């Protein structure tokens, strides 16, 4: 079987073609159309921050989605004087924030600069939309690499401890099912993975967060943490479902890499 990553590379060998295909996907196209139709109504930093859909789209385009929640911080970024070497954004070591601020025409009081009539001119608008699609392609490539690593390594896992001991594998699984690895101790996860997903009273099924039950169901470990004789830590179907879910959880279900994976799955 051709690997997910190789499928992705074949799929996106022509970057321009991939960008066009990505932009044409319904979900992506819908967001781009909304952005185009509504960015013109943004007359201040307040307007941008209040319109969650436009703000989130722009933050994703510039690779700042992890900072979307930090609106007070982003206000300082957008209201910085870009000509002042001592301004807030100029002092930040991460240049993504400066690039983001440069994409808009806000003054230090949060309004649109006098000489401009829109928050973002047509060139910056198209650049933002292009970056959004380009970033999704790159994120898809990264996830495809991790997905292939997960699939290949899972074949070597013979116990829960093997999985927990491989942080790359474990983090992929936890993130896939919406579990923050920072708050999941090895002992707790071991109890989850050795739970019987079909037993309503099992440890995983007793958790308020249903993500743990889904994680338990994604593997086939026995109560003692071992793999059944002749069995595997995950069936082929479980591995496929985990990877499929990984793309959707990451918001990349419509990315070229996900399309390659889903097409490969369908053909197989």
């Amino acid at each position: 079987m051709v690997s997910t990553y190789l499928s992705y590379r074949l799929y996106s060998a022509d970057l321009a073609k991939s960008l066009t295909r990505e932009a044409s996907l319904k979900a992506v196209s819908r967001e781009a159309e909304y952005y185009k139709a509504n960015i013109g109504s943004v007359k201040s930093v307040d307007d941008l921050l209040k319109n969650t859909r436009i703000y989130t789209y722009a933050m994703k385009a510039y690779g700042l989605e992890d900072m979307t929640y930090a609106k007070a911080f982003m206000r300082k970024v957008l209201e910085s004087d870009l000509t002042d070497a001592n301004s807030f954004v100029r002092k930040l070591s991460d240049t993504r924030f400066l690039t983001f601020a440069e994409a808009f025409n806000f003054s230090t009081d949060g309004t649109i600069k006098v000489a401009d009539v829109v928050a973002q001119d047509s060139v910056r608008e198209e650049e933002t939309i292009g970056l959004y699609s380009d970033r999704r392609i790159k994120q898809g490539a990264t996830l495809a690499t991790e997905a292939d690593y997960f699939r290949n390594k899972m074949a070597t896992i013979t116990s829960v401890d093997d999985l927990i001991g491989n942080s790359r594998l474990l983090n992929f699984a936890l993130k896939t099912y919406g579990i923050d690895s920072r708050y999941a101790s090895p002992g707790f996860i071991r109890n989850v993975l050795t739970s019987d997903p079909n037993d309503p009273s099992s440890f995983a099924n007793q958790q308020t967060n249903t993500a743990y039950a889904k994680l338990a169901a994604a593997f086939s470990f026995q109560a003692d943490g071992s793999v059944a004789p002749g069995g595997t830590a995950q069936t082929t179907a479980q591995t496929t479902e985990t990877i499929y879910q990984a793309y959707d959880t990451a918001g990349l279900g419509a990315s070229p890499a996900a399309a390659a994976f889903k097409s490969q799955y369908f053909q197989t």
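The longest helix spans residues 122-154. The chain has a mean pLDDT of 85.
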